[in-house]
Design brief:
The protein is an alpha+beta fold. It has a single domain, classed as START domain (Alpha-D-Glucose-1,6-Bisphosphate, Chain A, domain 4). The chain is built from 3 helices and 7 strands. A hairpin with a 4-residue loop joins strand 5 (84-89) and strand 6. It is globular, with a radius of gyration of 14 Å. The protein starts with 8 loop residues before the first strand and ends with a helix.
């Protein structure tokens, strides 16, 4: 997929939790399975994560009724603990996620290259919904 000419989309959230907890919940498969989906009618039954440069990750996102599923997968290009994660998805798109903590709040900024199938607004809304699920999951635990 050619994505070099497409402006990245950036989504953001502020999580009321210490950076250690945010980092753990973002990266450990047993936690990823609890937040990595955009709609309540979906879930993530499987997640693998080798958080290191060159490490691979894969999260299965699936409709709860079994009608459709896909793997969100790629390879890490940068991992700076508690600060930055960058990766390339299997379709070649690049993603960057930054974390900054201030006064017990972690600001997350996630930028990604959109794909060329779905409308930009739909992609932004879907990724933001997943990030909001993450925020809610961390703050409730």
């Amino acid at each position: 997929m050619e994505t070099s000419g497409i402006n990245p989309i950036t989504i953001k959230a502020e999580v009321q939790a210490p950076i250690e907890k945010v980092w753990k919940f973002w990266n450990e498969p047993e936690h990823i399975k609890n937040w990595a989906f955009a709609l309540d009618t979906w879930h993530s039954p499987h997640a693998e994560n080798d958080l290191q440069k060159g490490g691979k990750f894969s999260t299965t996102m699936a409709a709860k009724d079994g009608s459709v599923s896909f793997d969100f997968a790629g390879v890490y290009t940068t991992v700076e603990q508690h600060q930055l994660i960058e990766y390339t998805l299997n379709d070649g798109r690049k993603v960057s996620v930054s974390f900054s903590e201030e006064n017990g709040t972690v600001k997350i900024s996630e930028s990604f290259q959109p794909e060329d199938v779905n409308p930009i607004e739909m992609q932004e809304a879907g990724w933001q919904a997943i990030l909001n699920n993450f925020k809610n999951y961390v703050e409730e635990k």
